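Task 17 of the worksheet. Students: predict the tertiary structure of the chain below and write it out as C-alpha cells. Keep your answer in the requested format; marks are given for formatting as well as content.
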Amino acid sequence: MVSLSICLIALMAPKSTLRSLSLIREIATALARCVPAIDALVRQRDNLLRERHHQRELYLDLLVKILTNVIYGDPSMFPGQSGFDPKLRDIGGDWPSLGHTMVGVARLKNLKQLTQRTIDECIPGDYIETGVWRGGCCILIRGILAANAIANRKVYVADSFAGLPPPNPERYPADADDTHYMAQQLAISLEQVQANFAKYGLLDDQVVFLRGLFQETLPGLAVAPFALLRLDGDMYESTIVALTNLYPRLSPGGFVIIDDYGTCEGCRTAVTDYRRDTGISAEIHSIDGSGVWWQRPLRHRESISESGAGKSA
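Model answer:
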C-alpha cells in the first residue's frame, strides 16, 4: 500500500520536480515494487543506459584525443618550442601545428565534464565560446550534444577570425603592453574553422558563428539563457566585454570557464574587477594552472543587470 502511494505521488509529480537522476531512479524502483512484472524492464533500461553511457564516453574521450592530436603528436609551433611534449600538450603549454585546439587535454576534459553536467542537471540554455582559434572547444561541445541526442541547444562560436586586436590602453590600461595582436598564428579564418567542424561531421544549424570583435557582436546578441560560457580572449578588454555582455544571461547553476586566468594578467584582472563590481563570490576552481571555472549559484546575491555590471549586493 505504501509502495502504491509512492507510485501515485511520483506519477502525479510535475515535471519540474523530476530534475535529478537520483529521483528518477527512486521513482523507477518504486514502480518496480508496485508492479513486479515490470522489474525486468527496469533492469533492462538500466543496462541500456549503462551501455549508452559507455559508448558516449568512448566517443568523447576519442574526440578529446583527436582535437588535441595527442594520437599523432604533432610538433609545437609556439616560438622557442619544437617537437611534441605530451606533458606540455596535457596542460595546454604549446601551440599544436595541426591539432584543432591549444587548450590541452586537461582543459578539454574539464569542458567535457561541465558541459555534460549542464545536460545531466537540466541547466537550461545554449553554449558560447569567445575566442575559438581553430574551433576545437566548440567542436567538443557540439560533439557532446550529438552524443546525448540533443537537438534543441546551440553552440555559439564567437571570434574575429582575424587574430586579436591591438590594445586600447587609453580605455583599458591593463592591456597596455599586450602583444597578442602580433601573433599571426592566432588568426584562423572563419572558413577554416567551419571546415574543421565539417571534418567531424558536426557542422549544422546547431552551430552559430559570430564574426567580429566582441564589442561589436556580443551586445546585440539576442540569445538567452546560456548554460555555459567559455571565455578565451587573453586580454583585459576581450574578457571584460564578454563577461559584461554574457554573464547576466547565464542560467543559475550554469558554468563560467576562463581559459587564460592563470597565465594572462590582463584576463585575470578583468575577472577580478568584474567579480568585485558585481558581488560574485562563487569559488574559483583551478583546472591546470591556467584555466579556471566557477558555477553561478542557484540562489545568489549578485547585482547584475542585462546591460552589464552592477554594484555589489
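Marker's comment: Residues 248 and 305 are 6 Å apart (CA to CA). The chain has ten helices and seven strands.
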